[in-house]
Write a structure and sequence with these properties.
extended, alpha/beta, disordered N terminus, two-stranded antiparallel sheet, 3 domains, about 50% helix, seven-stranded mixed β-sheet
């Protein structure tokens, strides 16, 4: 039985006839089928072959006949139902107005051009307001206010690090005393108990500071957003543009007092850099910019004191594009402990706290991830990047035997694919797949690793044209700051050979 809008109709039972030859005899197979047919045709055909012991040489003919019969009879059923519906319209059994309203609603809900526009969210409104202000004379005011917040957080982090350091020193002294008494007045169980107490104390202290930092950053975020909205409203209300500019000029000096009083945490350090222009593509070539940079990876992350015009200018450039289709990304190599904040994850200053920075990968596996997998954090207040790809790697990368199928290499490919789908037009990649040099990383090791990454990234960039239609991008290859100048220039010479950098062609004519 089949129900339709309050009415009950009986499904049609039809007989399928199939004639075939079995040896010297012509055979006819009669099978009753209930319409509409609810089973898969392939499954039905297989059951008929098995139950009726049909010879294999008529298998294809049976399947073709069965498919044709079901298709034909299904259309007959549709036509019959349509005729009944039309009869209902002519006899008045169906309310025409109600039917047309239902059709109109369904069409509007399923057709994009006729659908009602979505109401803008608060985040979208704030993005528009911020984008307008950061491209106005108010930009310096915004930067100074966020810098004031940065100094406040930096002081808290310094206080946290000092308190943790003191606890660790105290615990180390206590553990030395315990180990000195091991075997005399204390046993292994006593040592384990003290170690457990130390661990618990560290966890309690770290959790306390994590909670405090999260609370302060959330308060700052709310205050900043409210202040931005209010400033925008005030500027809209005012009709005197000169008065607006004067008000904006007064604000920075007041806001930067706390910033100027803070100690300079980061020194400006010169970095080596080489730039190249390339064209990639089989038929339609796309121009890309490549850079080889020798710098500390954290230089791209850490917000810096506004002690120099360079730091402030870089921060302004990042802020100008925070709500745009030209975002900057960075690949940060991390271990597989998502919820751990030691080593480079702690030093980078990147906070994972807060809903906006949690990735689907973290939600899927809150404890560990595999090499080659990555999670993403989004930022509006880092030095030079908006998106950080936390790529999980292991110690295998320190060997010189990795191939193009290594998980880290495949992770880079997936990261570049995300860049294509999320408007990230500048991406910084660690060329040697390490952030720090060690003794085993000899000149041959570096050259071999760089050649592998160069060639793989070139292949991925050629794939990108099929992913995004061929958008011009900037790819920065980052090498550790401790690498020698000689090694840097060897890598610089290798890059144009692999990518075949564009050269200027001068044409002269002879008269």
């Amino acid at each position: 039985m089949k129900k339709s809008k309050g009415k009950t109709t009986t499904t049609a039972a039809k007989e399928f006839l199939f004639e075939f030859r079995a040896g010297k005899h012509n055979c006819v197979l009669k099978v009753p089928l209930q319409f509409p047919v609810q089973v898969n045709i392939g499954d039905l055909h297989g059951r008929l072959m098995l139950l009726h012991k049909i010879p294999c040489y008529v298998e294809n003919e049976l399947k073709a006949s069965l498919s044709t019969f079901i298709e034909k009879e299904t259309m007959v059923d549709y036509d019959r139902e349509a005729e009944l519906t039309l009869q209902g319209l002519t006899t008045g059994d169906v309310d025409v107005n109600q039917l047309t309203s239902a059709w109109s609603k369904s069409y509007q809900e399923t057709t994009l051009e006729h659908a009602q526009p979505e109401e803008p969210s608060w985040d979208e409104d704030f993005a528009d307001v911020y984008h307008e202000l950061i491209h106005s004379p108010a930009s310096e005011t915004l930067l100074n206010l966020e810098h004031n917040y940065f100094v406040s957080i930096s002081e808290l982090i310094s206080e946290r690090d000092m308190e943790i350091k003191k606890l660790q020193e105290r615990q180390a002294t206590e553990m030395d005393k315990v180990m000195h008494e091991l075997g005399n007045t204390l046993s292994d169980q006593d040592v384990n108990a003290v170690a457990s107490q130390h661990f618990d104390a560290q966890q309690i202290l770290e959790n306390k500071w994590t909670s405090e930092l999260k609370q302060v950053t959330e308060i700052q975020k709310q205050e900043y957003q409210e202040w931005v909205i209010k400033l925008h409203q005030d500027l809209k209300k005012s009709n005197n543009s000169s008065q607006i500019n004067e008000e904006i000029k007064v604000q920075p000096s007041q806001l930067s007092e706390a910033a100027d009083s803070g100690t300079r945490m980061f020194e400006e350090q010169p970095q080596l850099e080489e730039s190249f222009t390339i064209h990639l593509g089989a038929q339609l070539k796309t121009m890309h910019n490549l850079r080889l940079v020798r710098a500390d990876v954290l230089d791209f992350c850490k917000h810096r004191q506004h002690g120099s015009s360079g730091a402030k200018l870089r921060r302004l450039q990042t802020a100008l594009s925070v709500y745009s289709s030209s975002l900057c990304g960075l690949v940060l190599l991390v271990d597989n402990r998502v919820n751990s904040y030691s080593g480079i994850k702690r030093d980078s200053g990147i906070q994972k706290n807060g809903g906006d920075d949690k990735s689907k990968t973290v939600e899927r596996n809150p404890s560990n991830i595999l090499p080659g997998e990555f999670y993403i954090s989004r930022h509006s207040n880092l030095s030079e990047v908006h998106v950080v790809f936390h790529l999980c790697v292991d110690d295998n990368l320190r060997s010189g035997n990795i191939t193009a199928r290594d998980p880290a290499i495949m992770g880079l490919r997936n990261i570049l694919k995300v860049c294509c789908t999320h408007d990230i037009t500048t991406v910084t990649i660690p060329l040697l797949l390490v952030h720090d040099m060690s003794e085993e990383m000899t000149i041959p090791w570096c050259l071999k690793r760089a050649e592998l990454v160069f060639k793989c990234v070139k292949g991925f960039m050629m794939e990108m044209a099929s992913w995004d239609g061929g958008i011009s991008r900037t790819v920065q290859f980052l090498v550790p700051k401790s690498i020698s100048e000689e090694m840097f220039y060897q890598l610089s010479n290798m890059l144009p050979q692999i990518f075949r950098v564009s050269s200027t062609l001068t044409l002269t004519s002879k008269h």
